[in-house]
Amino acid sequence: xxxxxxxxxxxxxxxxxxxxxxxxxxxxxxxxxxxxxxxxxxxxxxxxxxxxxxxxxxxxxxxxxxxxxxxxxxxxxxxxxxxxxxxxxxxxxxxxxxxxxxxxxxxxxxxxxxxxxxxxxxxxxxxxxxxxxxxxxxxxxxxxxxxxxxxxxxxxxxxxxxxxxxxxxxxxxxxxxxxxxxxxxxxxxxxxxxxxxxxxxxxxxxxxxxxxxxxxxxxxxxxxxxxxxxxxxxxxxxxxxxxxxxxxxxxxxxxxxxxxxxxxxxxxxxxxxxxxxxxxxxx
Length: 283
Hints:
The protein is of the alpha/beta class.
């Protein structure tokens, strides 16, 4: 069941929730019936169509088979990547997201890494821990849902300009279905930004991700996009420690300092980006 909550930093009338009536701000984007049901009023042309499955059953397995809800039951108010990764991601958002955008932050937490100086039209968050999501100052609303149990979003088709998924794609056991749902809720020309590094909760990452290397993981995410009809050709953006090291090698004693561990290795940054139907050109 979908659990929709307002962010307390964006208060609205509590009577709306006592009567289980959705806030007017959400009525246009949330439906009571399953949006992917064949009887849905949404046209089939707006739905994401899965062309092929990327993963085998074995590749979808996790070392820890127990509920993800239990694993994420307690909040973790930490960042799972370093400052360099976060800075690169924020710059990417600054470049690709516009203030008038309505954004879905998928598999989010207590921070969204959006540029602080930009106020977007609306940001809706999704995740597994309500306490983390309630602390995220960028979210206007959020909902709690386990995408490994149910991949359907109770969200109207063509309702978001951008969907974000930060350092979490490695935990999806049904990525093809999730990417198809993302396609459905995106407006034509909407962008899906999937970012990740080499960090993970090892026991909760799927086998295909655990057994891969960084190059193969990039290819895997590209295949997720390509498995759904209608996404543009995926674009890859990366910033790896090797590139940073080339600059560092120009510094005096950089080699010996690195050998002694005095220059810490930075997290590699990867983002795979695609658009629904076409990539828009803004003036």
